[in-house]
Design a protein that fits this description.
Helices cover about 60% and strands about 0% of the residues. The protein is globular and about 55 Å long. It has a domain of about 110 residues: Hypothetical protein, domain 2 (Endonuclease III, domain 1, Orthogonal Bundle), CATH 1.10.340. It is an all-alpha fold. The longest helix is centred in the middle third of the chain and has 18 residues.
Length: about 220
């Protein structure tokens, strides 16, 4: 981080949050039934849309390989074909196996749940294919830790709102949001889900400004 920090205004962030919540309602995220499903989904959703992840997860379930042990026992090619809808399927098959091996080595989800957030994040980031955003998805949604997830949508929306430049290092942005909002798992959960929802419907690469719930805060002419 090189000592760089950003200062965000909590009241501005909460005005944006309330506007999004009123526009879309509670999102009930993450769309996964178990912590394991959340973690697998966080890996599969890299560089693809969620509906493709759902197809891949359903394929794994129907094939009876949706568990740490079963995924490790399955052939690489079999896993790759089952998760084909998620894209980059050979790479992601390897990442799933690497992650399941990590889970097994660490003693499973229950053992990880006992760790302090900083240590748990450190361990997750040590797994091949798990970067900061994926690790933070897991921390927030699978382990209920107060970690604010930064993605491309967050950068896009809040740079258009004039609150960030948008090109700050990941850790700088994460620390900025967490510092301004204070540790709040439920808020972080809902906020991130609403950001994704808003980016899907309005704040695309080419913004659809008519009807945008954040228009009053936006800096786009």
């Amino acid at each position: 981080m090189g000592g760089k920090k950003i200062k965000l205004d909590r009241s501005d962030l909460m005005v944006a949050f309330q506007s999004l919540l009123e526009a879309y309602g509670s999102q009930g995220w993450w769309p996964g039934e178990t912590a394991f499903e959340v973690m697998i989904g966080a890996i599969l959703t890299q560089n693809t849309a969620w509906q493709n992840v759902e197809k891949a997860i359903n394929n794994l379930k129907q094939a009876g390989v949706f568990s740490e042990t079963a995924l490790l026992a399955a052939l690489d090619g079999e896993v790759a074909q089952l998760i084909r809808p998620s894209g980059y399927f050979n790479i992601k098959a390897d990442r799933l196996k690497q992650f399941c091996g990590f889970l097994q080595k660490q003693g499973g989800e229950d053992a990880l749940r006992e760790l302090e957030t900083i240590k748990l994040r450190e361990l997750l980031l040590s797994v091949k294919g798990v970067g900061p955003e994926t690790a933070d998805d897991m921390l927030l949604y699978a382990f209920q830790r107060p970690v604010f997830v930064i993605d491309a949508y967050t950068r896009r929306i809040f740079s258009r709102l004039g609150m960030v430049a948008g090109d700050e290092p990941y850790e700088v942005l994460r620390a900025g949001f967490e510092s301004a909002l204070g540790p709040d798992v439920d808020l972080f959960n809902e906020y991130h889900a609403l950001i994704v929802c808003h980016a899907k419907y309005f704040c695309n690469t080419k913004p659809k400004c008519s009807g945008c719930s954040l228009a009053s805060q936006c800096t786009i002419p």
